[in-house]
Amino acid sequence: MEITKNQIDQLNLEIKVKKAKKDYQGNVEQLLKNHKKKANIKGFRPGLAPMSLIKKQYQEPIRIEEINKLLSESLDKYIKTESLNILGYPIPKQKETIDWDAEELIFEYELGLSPEVRVELELVKATYYKIIASNEQLDKYIENFKLNFGEQIVLENVEEDTNLSVKIKTINNDLLDKVIYFNLKEVNKELFLGKNKNEEFTTKPSDLFTSMDSFIEITQMQKEELEGIFNNDL
User: Fold this and answer.
1) Which residues on neighbouring strands pair with residue 178, listed in sequence order?
2) How far apart are CA 181 and CA 166, in angstroms?
3) CB 3.0–4.6 Å: which of 50, 64, 82, 209 could bond 215 by disulfide?
4) How many CA atoms lie within 13 A of 203 on its CB side?
5) Can you give the pTM of this predicted structure?
6) DSSP notation for 124-173
7) Three-state secondary structure along 30-42?
């Protein structure tokens, strides 16, 4: 096998790969033998079909697959050995026909190189900001971290700062019937504190939620769907 390169310009080069038959023929012969052992061809018992028939049916696809495999491995190794910083992948030059049984095969590829970028940081002036988080910000971050990554425990009774899963339903119609999720801080907590996890009670959305906007955000419904029931019993 022989690999040569032709530098077109600073950002483009061509690579030519020459493959002799001896580079891959041994692998092809071994693959054909392995295939012969498993081949199930009509008129022959499994593994007993003559090699001439195996070659006639399978030699070319096996040869092409093996050549492409070796080409890929050779190109990867060459690019790493030459420390070529390429953009994307090598693009093969198209050929009208390929004689896969030739004693020598030649494949050509076009490669794009990454341009060299130099940044002189000593010439860059930048303002350094020292950010000091307030205790309130730190407490909020800790609370959010607990909510997102803390262990979830099912409580028998509702306690302060609890995350709730609640099924809400209008009493006299089916305008609202869904499960909603919220933290006790987002609603009138006095309606829930101390209640059993399976307890049911009646209330109005206007008493439960702090505002219509809060009602819309938590239920994730449209304002038009909720306006008529904001002051009705749930």
Assistant:
1) 168
2) 6
3) 209
4) 16
5) 0.47
6) -----------HHHHHHHHHHHHHHHSPP---SB--TT-EEEEEEE-SSS
7) HHHHHHHHHCCCC
Encoded tokens for 116: 């060299």
Check: CB of residue 109 under 8 Å from CB of residue 14.
Answer: yes
Question: DSSP per residue over the chain, as a string?
Answer: -EEEEEEEETTEEEEEEEEEHHHHHHHHHHHHHHHHHH---TTS-TT-S-HHHHHHHHHHHHHHHHHHHHHHHHHHHHHHHTT--EEEEEEEPP-S---TTSSEEEEEEEEEEPPP----GGG-----------HHHHHHHHHHHHHHHSPP---SB--TT-EEEEEEE-SSSSS-EEEEEEEGGGB-GGGTTT-BTT------HHHHBSSHHHHHHHHT--HHHHGGGTTS--
Name the amino acid, one letter, at 2.
E
In 3D, which of 143, 94, 130, 109 has the Cα closest to residue 12? Answer: 109
Number of other CB atoms surrounding residue 222 within 10 Å: 9
- Pair of tokens at residue 144: 């959010």
